[in-house]
């Protein structure tokens, strides 16, 4: 078979087909594929006597509204300006967009913002640096303190935690005798009071530092870590107040808080590590890696899975719990045999 002859015949057939459709004009050398498809559709409808019905009614769907909003011009009658100029500037800056383009009016900037919110509603901010955000907040509070001070000579900010004055370490140790005995309300209440008491003690330790030391980098770093820990533990505090903590996590917390109140920080750290990283050979919970079942697959359950890998919220409050344990060991020291890294724990 002559391949050149077959190819030439196919090219001639295509050329003849295009000439019959009358797509190319006298001065046109090329044509668009969509024009050919449109011409073939029209001929098909003509042969089969098909009449196309054009619906001129305005669409009420969400997509139609989005098209109207995204294609609207500078006519102010189409959409009233419902946001103030300050709010428009704030939202544009959140999206890393210019607050005003060249020769752009306030309404046109508002219109551009609405178009961005419709076409790209989600803002991808990426991973946030919580430590830097807390440090910036502390610096801003220090600046505000310096501006507003009336000669009292104190330039360091204070970190406060609301807590009942009647709670002491002795009362918490007395209540810890009934910890982990099946009373979920008592356990959640004691864990919450203990963690808030330690956060309050940590804040008092930072506030008692002399004013000249509050200007040092070490104090600012410790204060920033405290603020970051408060933010990390906030979801856990809410769950403890609502009694919605997962049962396996609550059991670990009971063991950690119980040993911490008894000043046995080695055992508390061992339970913390078991909660954070688990002791399963597959920490993320993978049990099926092939067509055959793993040996001992039934031994993998929730107590062996690493909770620090579940989600970002759990990772943060688990990290905050470790900081509280370190603060408790510093404020309420124990024997070296019951302490973790005895010589490494230092005060501010």
TrEMBL record:
Protein origin, superkingdom: Eukaryota
Pfam families found in the cross-reference section: Prp18, PRP4
GO biological process, one term: generation of catalytic spliceosome for second transesterification step
Coiled coil: none
UniProt-annotated stretches for the region Disordered: 55-78
GO CC term (a single one): U5 snRNP
Annotated PANTHER family: PRE-MRNA SPLICING FACTOR-RELATED, PRE-MRNA-SPLICING FACTOR 18
Name listed for the protein in its UniProt record: Pre-mRNA-splicing factor 18
GN (gene name): Prpf18
């Amino acid at each position: 078979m002559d391949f050149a002859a077959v190819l030439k015949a196919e090219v001639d057939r295509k050329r003849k087909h295009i000439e019959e459709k009358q797509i190319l004009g006298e001065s046109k050398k090329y044509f668009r594929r969509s024009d050919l498809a449109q011409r073939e559709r029209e001929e098909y409808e003509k042969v089969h006597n098909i009449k196309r019905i054009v619906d001129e009614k305005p669409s009420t769907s969400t997509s139609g509204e989005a098209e109207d909003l995204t294609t609207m011009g500078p006519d102010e009658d189409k959409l009233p300006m419902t946001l103030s100029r300050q709010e428009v500037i704030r939202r544009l800056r959140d999206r890393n967009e210019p607050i005003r383009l060249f020769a752009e009016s306030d309404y046109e900037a508002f219109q551009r913002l609405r178009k961005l919110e419709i076409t790209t509603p989600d803002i991808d901010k990426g991973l946030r640096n919580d430590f830097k955000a807390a440090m910036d907040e502390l610096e801003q509070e220090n600046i505000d303190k310096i501006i507003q001070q009336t000669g009292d000579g104190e330039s360091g900010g204070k970190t406060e935690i609301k807590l009942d004055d009647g709670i002491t370490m002795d009362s918490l140790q007395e209540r810890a005798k009934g910890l982990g005995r099946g009373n979920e309300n008592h356990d959640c209440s004691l864990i919450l009071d203990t963690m808030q008491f330690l956060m309050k003690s940590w804040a008092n330790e930072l506030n008692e530092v002399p004013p000249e030391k509050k200007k040092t980098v070490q104090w600012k770093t410790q204060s920033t870590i405290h603020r970051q820990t408060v933010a990390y533990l906030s979801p856990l505090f809410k769950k403890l107040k609502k009694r919605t903590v997962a049962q396996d996590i609550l059991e670990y917390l009971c063991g950690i808080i119980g040993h911490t109140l008894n000043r046995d920080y080695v055992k508390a750290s061992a339970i913390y590590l078991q909660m954070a990283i688990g002791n399963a050979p597959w920490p993320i919970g993978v049990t099926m890696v092939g067509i055959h079942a793993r040996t001992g697959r039934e031994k993998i359950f929730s107590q062996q899975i690493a909770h620090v890998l579940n989600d970002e919220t759990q990772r943060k409050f688990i990290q905050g719990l470790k900081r509280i344990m370190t603060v408790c060991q510093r404020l309420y020291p124990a024997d070296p045999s019951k302490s973790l890294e005895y010589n490494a724990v230092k005060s501010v």
